[in-house]
Amino acid sequence: MGPVLILVIVVIVIVAVAALLYNGLVTKRNQIDEALGQIEVQLKRRHDLIPNLVDAVKGYMNFEKSVLENVTAARANAVAAGSQGPAQQAQAENALTGALRSLFAVVENYPELKANQNVLELQEQLTTTENQISFSRQHYNATVLDYNNSIQTIPAVLVAGPLGFTKREFFDAEPEAAEVPKVDLSLS
Fold first, then answer.
1. Of 92, 95, 158, 159, which one has the greatest count of Cβ atoms within 10 A?
2. Which pLDDT belongs to residue 109?
3. Is the peptide bond before 155 cis (omega within 30 degrees of 0)?
4. Is residue 184 scored above 80 in pLDDT?
């Protein structure tokens, strides 16, 4: 074999490897976009349920208007943050989670509200949605980790940088979720 043939084979192998790396990175980037879309679907469901819950408890909570206003404002901020990227969206969603926790704590003080079937149903739907959001965040973060590892390791790093593949942000959980809950099983 002549030197020209060897050079042609080497070039073909390099182009084939670069194409495979590029296609793999595109696939991983698309998986991130799909995973983020799943989070957005669940967050939209959450945002749609909140006004119904606020309306259901409004009549019972004449003296707790600030709690309802906080939930409504947090929801509006979370909806607006959706276009600002995962970090800002996560921060706004965490604030909304805190406002919902306050609302649920106040609901506990109203026995007739705790017994209201509509409120119970909405709380259950929100709890289910929160679980789905959590699973979606886990999937998204795992996908981002895989992608970020791929673009930062050899040989893909040689293709990723020049072709515009950049590091993606994680969808951070709320700080309260990182704390271990305290359980007291003592009998009082």
1. 92
2. 79
3. yes
4. no
